[in-house]
Amino acid sequence: MSILFYRRPDYIAKAAGPMDQGQCQRYVDRTQKHKRAIPDELSFENVIQNKALPPCALQDFMDYLVYVSHDAENLQFWLWLEDYTKRFNALPKREQVLSPPWSEDESAPPLANALDPAMRASDKSTLNLLEYPVSFETRELPPTPPILPPKFDSSRPQFSRNSSRTPLSRSPSRSTHHSVSPSTAAEAFDNMSVRSFNTTRTTPKEIAEDANTQVGLKWQSFTIQPFRSEVNRIISHYVAPNSPRELNLSHKTRAAVLHALQHTTNPNAFDPVKQLVECTLRGQSHPNFIRWSICNGNKPRVIQVRLNGGLFVFFGFVIAISLTLSHVPRWWRVMAMIPWVLGITTLVAAFKGLCIIMHSSHCRALHPWEQYSDVSSVNSFDVDDEATLSSSDVYSMSRSKRGLSLDTFGTGNSFDHEPWVEKYKKKSLLRKIYDRKIRIQDEAVRMLQDKIVMQSQLWALIIAIPVTAVFVVLPKGNLY
């Protein structure tokens, strides 16, 4: 990359409406254009796999999408789908065959014929259900099979609410005890989240049925397929209209993916959504995130630095004009070059989001959401208490709490209720300008910042030298 002509990735605006194939192709073309502006260390794959260091780690990418870009649902869905694909491929073949790959040319998968002999021998009651002629028009149910004791597979991992990257456990059967299991609590949380946008349907299964009905799908999904309950939760959180984390899908794409998910839970049923989400993340969100991460100052700090750079340039002209109008030797006018170089360097770097002073120590300002750890700390800290904590301590405490945004299931991504919003509004302008700082850990980010600063210095010399030469050759004014 040429130092003199290096440019950050261009800002890419969001699509005006739902994503389509044309917009997706434009994003792909822009991704090729930005390859030279983004080093390999900060590639999309390295960020997603959490190989990059702050400020370009996976958590930082999620924070950008939540607090700046306001479309974190794309990354949340993408992370879930990557994990879901691995878990589905790790299933035994006798379970995978229940959800064959989806093809638009196929009708409902012949589940009863797809089962292997071992499955037929062990689950005869289930086969009776599959072979029973079910009417999808009248929704006539097959005869109820005998209730068998549940079978637990110790080799299958269980779902934990502490991490969205772990598999979901099946809902336990009802018990006469009053204790609440983790999976029951998770189901109650989902029910609470979907009530906020649908008053007639309260469970993920019912939300999925409503979504199917809206696109003209009348029959019910196959419940015997692996991860069916998890897929219903994904539909109720990301695919259904007005869901908490609704993806920006067109009606055609939504209908296609719901139609596929009615027949199978195979990961390839999500391909129409996966392609659009991947194009958005790679072609729009990731380049904008790298562009934003290169900046080391917040908005008040950058504005203040720009004003300082303008003042340096102004003082340079004052010195040059004053010396030109005086009777002192003309070579004294070269002194005006010093503030011009400093001012132009500061201005060029500031217009790319960099503060020269902070860059000298390879630091960046903490973002507002990184400055507070939790509700109790925000409510109990006063100005003096906050000053006693180091920037690294505050950053580490807040980072552990912000990890919740990586969870697959939950409420919407709104942050207006978070305590830091009001706290930051009450901060004085001077404290915002000289906010807490933390060292930049990623070497690739520091390298890009070094290029921008060196570029600013070169442009300052290119501009200041001819201007200085013009003032030097001017005749004396001899006014004083």
Describe the fold and architecture.
The chain contains 22 helices and two strands. With 480 residues, it is mainly alpha-helical. The chain has a two-stranded antiparallel sheet. Helix 1 (21-33) packs parallel to helix 13 (271-294), helix 3 packs across helix 13 (271-294) and helix 4 packs across helix 13. The longest helix has 31 residues, at 443-473. It is elongated and about 95 Å long. Residues 107-199 and 375-389 have low confidence and may be disordered.
What order do the helices and strands come in, and which of them pair?
Blueprint: H1 21-33, H2 44-48, H3 58-69, H4 73-89, H5 93-96, H6 111-114, H7 117-122, H8 124-131, H9 182-195, H10 204-214, H11 228-239, H12 251-263, H13 271-294, H14 299-325, H15 337-350, H16 356-360, E1 363-365, H17 375-380, H18 383-388, H19 391-402, H20 419-425, H21 429-433, E2 437-439, H22 443-473
Antiparallel strand pairs: 1-2
Helix pairs in contact: 1-13, 3-13, 4-13, 10-11, 14-15, 15-22
